[in-house]
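Much of what follows relies on a compact textual record of a protein's fold. A complete example follows; check for yourself that the lines match position by position.
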Amino acid sequence: MRFSFRDYISQMATSWDGSYDPGSQSDDSHHFERLHIEPLYDAFVCPLTKKVMLDPVTLENGQTFERKAIEKWFKECRESGRKLVCPLTLKELKSTDLNPSIALRNTIEEWTTRNEAAQLDMARRSLNMSSSENDVLLSLKFIQHICQKSRSNKHVVRNADLIPMIVDMLKSSSRKVRCRALETLLVVVEEDEDNKAILAEGDTVRTIVKFLSHEQSKEREEAVSLLYELSKSEAVCEKIGSINGAILILVGMTSSKSENVLTVEKADKTLENLEKFENNVRQMAENGRLQPLLTQILEGSPETKQSMAAYLGELVLNNDVKVYVAKTIGESLINLMKSGNMQSREAALKALNQISSFEASSKVLIEAGILPPLVKDLFTVGANQLPMRLKEVSATILSNVVNSGYDVDSIPIGPDHQTLLSEDNVHNLLHLISNTGPPIECKLLQVLVGLTSSQTTALNVVAAIKSSGATISLVQFIEVPQQDLRMACIKLLQNLSPYMGQELADALRGTVGQLSSLIRVISENTGISEEQAAAAGLLAELPERDLGLTRQMLDEGAFQFIISRVVKIRQGETRGTRFVTPFLEGLVRVLARVTFVLSDEPDAVALCREYNLAALFIELLQANGLDNVQMVSASALENLSQESKTLTRLPELPPPGLCASIFPCFSKQAVITGLCRVHQGTCSLKESFCLLEGQAVHKLVALLDHTNAKVVEAALAALSTLLDDGVAIEQGVFVLCEAEAIKPILDVLLEKQTENLRRRAVWVVERLLRTEDIAYEVSGDQNVGTALVDAFHHADYRTRQIAERALKHVDKIPNFSGIFPNMG
């Protein structure tokens, strides 16, 4: 019959008190101390501890005790003031000398070794899948006991080939067995390099790593404790790092809020040990634990710094991490970039390229001193110059830092306090743009985009472009096939257009085809891109009264494309892109160009009639939230309404009869109905652009309450065309009265938001006050009188003249007063 380790334990337990639980997690060492295969001799047991002695010593009276126990007895006697007596005989001792019992100790050691060997063999036979759970648990616990009792026993366990057998228990279906096996392996390998080496053989470490993701927290805790101990061995460190997912899981555990503090701490310490190998450091960085990699860049050898910087350049970092990295190692990377080793420079540039792609981290790099060496790398030619592929990286970094919003003009980058915006440096950038390939050209154009993003810096760039004659060469990039290069060019020209619009218009009007290319970009029906918005913005900024440019756009059918895109956007056919608003604003401004040349260009009038542009602009007045669209639409309606005076078809009166020609007193004046009240002719919105049609007046009046002064000014300017010379002013006043426009107009005068708005409001109010009823009503309004007096005293010369006439209408100034000469 098979006799198991449990049977042996049970027999011994019965001989104790029958209460021993083999599956208990409690400390079982005192039970194992009392398990013996061979008989236990009384001489082996210390009378004080009742345990087998490890270091027996003999007193002068021949009694033997465990050294530590008898020493403790003597100490207690002295401390209590008692006589030194033998604890067994209680007789006083003359001497406390302790004589080692070497023979007895050797005998006990031999006896213990034989017992433990026999016990270990019994435990070994229970370590298999066919054994009961309790047998296995007891066997594992016994192995822990003997290893903890003496480090030399770890060699015994190793030599008995027990380590592979314990590892096999990790495959058990019992959670208790798996946990006990992990716990036992930790005891077996603790501070024992040979046992760690054996455990690292085969797939054991991979199996342990798998326990890190188990559902049971106890298994995870035991596994991470075991891995921490194993990671103290450099040989095993490399093995752990080579297991797919090991570092990822450990990094995850260090940031987990569900793990207990001890588990998190062990995972963190394990990772610290794994940092000895560069490959492990790379994996940690890839999985979000960047500090080891940054430390290597700060403190490593030149080769390590280069290697780690190169790897950093390959990582994808979130924006917050980029800022942290820039603050931590930005200066070190810049120093590496300035080194004489081309490989180190390349590694540093690629890392800096990654970090600088976020505005906040770019600003940190600028403050760390990146700008001077970066510009030097770009401009240097000769033996130490960067290869073109690295100049492209430098140009990308420069583009990133310039577009960060930092005041780069405050950073000296050369002798005599030169900055990037100094004329020579801008000339150098323009020269590079003309003499490099598309990738670098694109990045350098983006640098110029950043430098022209504010008025202060843009003026420096404009001056350099004009002095170098680079306008034509920049405009030519509009035709390149590379979309990113073309877009960078268009964005740059858009930034330049407020300061050199006429030069750009002249260049675009050439025969090369750049204007056609711009129109082609706008007309692409593939959603709305940033490039399209920039192209529309560029055309919108060009001088609106440039007749040649508008004629060329008419000839190329540009306005038809633009009308189609505007209509589709307003109908909701194009949604969900962040460039819709700037694109629509640009399109409407470009479309409004055609209204500035109506008197000189019949084709412009024909286009407005064919596509009923007046109706479209009236509809755009209701583009709430798009102030620029409303303002430009109102201005376009002003231009269209100005032409109504000439486009209105005046009635043809029938020739008088014979009698009437001889006797005029017998003739009756012909009465013609259906004529426009203001223009005294046949009008329509589509043909003569008359604002009395299409609810235009009411919609313009509604804009007088707008919060944007420029929108109010444009709306008021459009309404003022109904009071202009050449129309029936009195009828125009009646139209405004019917539209309830008088009070909003007076409110505009009172608010005095801008000087331009006051000038326009005074002009309109003076025309209104020519009507006696209105003048009578207004004369009682002290606020209006005060506003007119203020204009009379403080406005420009022309407005003061008009204010004087207005004040006369309301009897604030006598009619015979002549402060200003009569106006024509």
